[in-house]
Specification:
144 residues, 0% strand, mainly alpha, Photosynthetic Reaction Center, subunit C, domain 2
Length: 144
Protein backbone atom coordinates (compact mmCIF):
# COMPACT_ATOMS: atom_id res chain seq x y z
CA UNK A 1 0.00 0.00 0.00
CA UNK A 2 1.28 3.45 -0.81
CA UNK A 3 1.22 6.45 1.50
CA UNK A 4 -1.66 8.12 -0.35
CA UNK A 5 -3.94 5.10 0.09
CA UNK A 6 -3.06 4.90 3.79
CA UNK A 7 -3.66 8.64 4.19
CA UNK A 8 -7.14 8.49 2.63
CA UNK A 9 -7.98 5.36 4.60
CA UNK A 10 -7.08 7.10 7.85
CA UNK A 11 -8.92 10.28 6.82
CA UNK A 12 -12.12 8.38 5.98
CA UNK A 13 -11.85 6.46 9.26
CA UNK A 14 -11.57 9.74 11.17
CA UNK A 15 -14.63 11.12 9.40
CA UNK A 16 -16.68 8.01 10.15
CA UNK A 17 -15.62 8.11 13.80
CA UNK A 18 -16.53 11.81 14.00
CA UNK A 19 -19.97 10.98 12.63
CA UNK A 20 -20.47 8.21 15.17
CA UNK A 21 -19.16 10.26 18.09
CA UNK A 22 -21.20 13.34 17.25
CA UNK A 23 -24.34 11.20 16.78
CA UNK A 24 -26.21 14.36 15.94
CA UNK A 25 -28.59 12.88 13.41
CA UNK A 26 -31.00 15.11 11.55
CA UNK A 27 -32.80 15.34 8.24
CA UNK A 28 -31.19 17.25 5.39
CA UNK A 29 -32.36 20.82 4.93
CA UNK A 30 -34.95 21.52 2.26
CA UNK A 31 -32.86 24.21 0.62
CA UNK A 32 -30.03 23.37 -1.71
CA UNK A 33 -26.78 25.27 -1.16
CA UNK A 34 -26.06 28.11 -3.57
CA UNK A 35 -22.27 28.39 -3.40
CA UNK A 36 -21.06 24.94 -2.28
CA UNK A 37 -20.74 23.71 -5.86
CA UNK A 38 -18.28 26.50 -6.67
CA UNK A 39 -15.67 24.83 -4.44
CA UNK A 40 -15.91 21.51 -6.27
CA UNK A 41 -15.96 23.29 -9.62
CA UNK A 42 -12.64 25.00 -8.85
CA UNK A 43 -11.08 21.82 -7.41
CA UNK A 44 -11.85 19.91 -10.61
CA UNK A 45 -11.15 22.76 -13.03
CA UNK A 46 -8.87 21.69 -15.89
CA UNK A 47 -7.47 25.24 -15.75
CA UNK A 48 -4.77 24.71 -13.13
CA UNK A 49 -3.41 28.27 -13.30
CA UNK A 50 -4.36 30.94 -10.77
CA UNK A 51 -3.93 34.60 -11.67
CA UNK A 52 -5.64 35.95 -8.57
CA UNK A 53 -5.02 35.22 -4.89
CA UNK A 54 -2.01 34.02 -2.93
CA UNK A 55 -1.00 30.58 -1.70
CA UNK A 56 -3.80 28.73 -3.49
CA UNK A 57 -2.46 25.18 -3.39
CA UNK A 58 -5.54 23.07 -4.16
CA UNK A 59 -7.94 25.47 -5.89
CA UNK A 60 -7.60 25.82 -9.64
CA UNK A 61 -8.55 28.42 -12.22
CA UNK A 62 -9.00 31.36 -9.86
CA UNK A 63 -8.75 34.52 -11.98
CA UNK A 64 -10.76 37.15 -10.12
CA UNK A 65 -11.71 38.38 -6.68
CA UNK A 66 -15.37 37.55 -7.38
CA UNK A 67 -14.48 33.97 -8.31
CA UNK A 68 -12.38 33.50 -5.16
CA UNK A 69 -15.11 35.00 -2.97
CA UNK A 70 -17.71 32.63 -4.45
CA UNK A 71 -15.48 29.68 -3.54
CA UNK A 72 -14.98 31.03 -0.01
CA UNK A 73 -18.74 31.56 0.32
CA UNK A 74 -19.04 27.90 -0.60
CA UNK A 75 -16.92 26.95 2.41
CA UNK A 76 -18.92 29.29 4.64
CA UNK A 77 -22.19 27.79 3.44
CA UNK A 78 -21.05 24.17 3.60
CA UNK A 79 -19.36 24.36 7.01
CA UNK A 80 -21.33 27.14 8.70
CA UNK A 81 -18.11 28.99 9.58
CA UNK A 82 -16.67 32.44 9.02
CA UNK A 83 -13.34 33.37 7.40
CA UNK A 84 -11.41 33.31 10.69
CA UNK A 85 -12.15 29.59 11.11
CA UNK A 86 -9.36 28.87 8.58
CA UNK A 87 -7.66 32.21 8.02
CA UNK A 88 -5.54 34.63 10.00
CA UNK A 89 -7.53 37.82 9.42
CA UNK A 90 -4.28 39.83 9.13
CA UNK A 91 -2.72 37.45 6.57
CA UNK A 92 -5.23 35.37 4.60
CA UNK A 93 -2.42 33.56 2.74
CA UNK A 94 -0.88 32.27 5.99
CA UNK A 95 -0.90 28.51 6.60
CA UNK A 96 -0.64 28.85 10.39
CA UNK A 97 -4.13 27.56 11.25
CA UNK A 98 -4.59 23.77 11.48
CA UNK A 99 -8.13 24.14 10.15
CA UNK A 100 -6.74 25.49 6.87
CA UNK A 101 -4.44 22.48 6.61
CA UNK A 102 -7.37 20.14 7.28
CA UNK A 103 -9.46 21.98 4.68
CA UNK A 104 -6.77 21.30 2.08
CA UNK A 105 -6.75 17.60 2.96
CA UNK A 106 -10.53 17.47 2.72
CA UNK A 107 -10.45 19.29 -0.63
CA UNK A 108 -8.04 16.65 -1.94
CA UNK A 109 -10.35 13.93 -0.63
CA UNK A 110 -13.37 15.47 -2.41
CA UNK A 111 -11.36 15.75 -5.64
CA UNK A 112 -10.29 12.12 -5.32
CA UNK A 113 -13.87 10.94 -4.78
CA UNK A 114 -15.19 13.04 -7.65
CA UNK A 115 -12.54 11.98 -10.15
CA UNK A 116 -12.28 8.29 -9.19
CA UNK A 117 -15.78 7.28 -8.18
CA UNK A 118 -18.26 9.81 -9.58
CA UNK A 119 -17.50 9.04 -13.19
CA UNK A 120 -20.88 9.39 -14.88
CA UNK A 121 -21.69 12.79 -16.43
CA UNK A 122 -25.20 12.89 -14.96
CA UNK A 123 -24.11 12.03 -11.41
CA UNK A 124 -23.95 14.81 -8.84
CA UNK A 125 -20.47 15.64 -7.67
CA UNK A 126 -19.52 15.45 -4.02
CA UNK A 127 -19.12 18.83 -2.31
CA UNK A 128 -18.12 19.89 1.19
CA UNK A 129 -21.85 20.31 1.83
CA UNK A 130 -22.47 16.62 1.05
CA UNK A 131 -21.17 15.65 4.50
CA UNK A 132 -20.97 18.88 6.48
CA UNK A 133 -24.50 20.22 5.87
CA UNK A 134 -23.70 23.61 7.37
CA UNK A 135 -21.64 22.31 10.31
CA UNK A 136 -17.86 22.35 10.82
CA UNK A 137 -18.11 18.71 11.94
CA UNK A 138 -19.65 16.33 9.36
CA UNK A 139 -23.18 15.28 10.26
CA UNK A 140 -24.91 11.96 9.77
CA UNK A 141 -27.99 12.56 7.66
CA UNK A 142 -30.97 10.22 7.62
CA UNK A 143 -32.85 9.93 4.37
CA UNK A 144 -36.21 8.32 3.82
Amino acid sequence: MNKTAIFYGVLITIIVLALIISSDVYSPPDTKPVYAGFVTEQILSPDTANTYGENLKVLHGIHSRAQLLDVMRGFTEALGVQCTFCHNINDFASDEKPTKQMARMMIKMVANIDTRYIDQPNWEKVTCYTCHRGSSIPKLVLTK
